[in-house]
Amino acid sequence: MYRSIVAYITGLLLVAPAAASEQAFIYPSHFRTQQISSNGTMVHVRIGGKGPAVLLLHGYGETGDMWAPLAAELSGTHTVIAPDLRGMGLSARAEKGFEKKNQAEDIAGVTNALHITKVDVIAHDIGNMVAFAFAAQHPETVTRLIVMDAPIPGVGPWEEILKHPLLWHFRFGGPDMERLVRGRERIYLDRFWNEFAADPGRFKERSRRHYARLYARPGRMRAGFLQFAAFDQDALDNRAFLENGRLKMPVLAVGGERSFGSTMAVVMRAAADNVQEVVIANSGHWLMEEQPTTTIAAIRSFLVHQSQARE
């Protein structure tokens, strides 16, 4: 199976564009946006395409806009749903509810509002954590799960991961920290885009300006800090989920070679029974910015092969 996936990815790369557009955050014109009331908040959602549903969950330092190249690729065969997480991007301001168990219910409300009963879930960074909670609480809804380059609180080597010096931002937040970054959002975010990239130049200037503007909107940096502040409770919740059983749906664990790498699969094998692994060469954490073509090919390959396996 692994060799067939590699061969499929290679074939896709031979016909794919040489480079992604610098404006990788712009969705195709056939997508629409919708504000969906869910779980006590309002979620901004991008929707487009036709076919089996696929849900895209972003992480910190970006919004649902990060998925535009993948959404364009999948919308020919799938209905693509790409929300902004609670309090982030163009979703409503929020002051509480950032536990990933609760945010999973935000997502459940979105899928219910769109009358979706089965969905593939693709996630990156903090989106992984929401996706894991969603899959654990709604296994009848999630058909396949793809997680990309970030740990899951309380799962696998979580306590060892917390000791890494680059992850000091996990504990950074609160009123004084908000004052420190107010008006300096771009400086703070550049640290993430630079230090977690294999090649910072691949995270383009237009994208940096775009996301910095979104994070400078009222309440957005606070929402980001609260995502991290919830990790201790997330770890407790995730351990409780695993006491009730492991994930049974097929999982693809994707890591950047110069970032989380094969550790993504180590984490998921601590929580799921059917895990495949892909490491994206020459990429750091920002897979969709640094190596979009290879990353999209890996995702497409997994979806295709898993669909064939079910037939």
Protein traits:
Rossmann fold; alpha/beta; 311 residues
Structure description:
The chain is built from 13 helices and 8 strands. It is α/β, with parallel strands linked by helices. The protein has a single domain (2-310), classed as Rossmann fold (3-Layer(aba) Sandwich), CATH 3.40.50. Strands 1-2-4-3-5-6-7-8 form an 8-stranded mixed β-sheet, sandwiched between helices. The model is unreliable at 1-22 (pLDDT under 50).
List the helices and strands and how they pair.
Elements: H1 2-15, E1 32-38, E2 41-49, E3 53-57, H2 68-74, E4 79-83, H3 100-113, E5 119-124, H4 126-137, E6 142-148, H5 158-161, H6 175-181, H7 185-195, H8 205-215, H9 220-229, H10 231-243, E7 251-256, H11 263-269, E8 275-280, H12 287-290, H13 292-310
Parallel strand pairs: 3-4, 3-5, 5-6, 6-7, 7-8
Antiparallel strand pairs: 1-2, 2-4
Helix pairs in contact: 1-13, 3-4, 4-10, 7-8
Write down how many β-strands occur, each being a DSSP E stretch of 2 or more residues.
Answer: 8
Query: How large, in whole angstroms, is the Cα Rg?
Result: 18 Å
Average predicted local confidence, pLDDT: 92
Q: Please report which band the strand proportion falls in: under 5%, 5-15%, 15-25%, 25-35%, 35-45% or over 45%.
A: 15-25%
Morphology:
globular
Largest sheet: 8 strands, mixed
**Total number of domains:** 1
- CATH topological fold name: Rossmann fold
Q: What strand line-up does the widest sheet have?
A: 1-2-4-3-5-6-7-8
| Class based on secondary structure composition and strand pairing | alpha/beta
| H-E order | HEEEHEHEHEHHHHHHEHEHH
**What are the segments in which pLDDT stays under 50 over at least 5 consecutive residues?**
1-22
| Helical coverage, percent range | 40-55%
CATH architecture: 3-Layer(aba) Sandwich
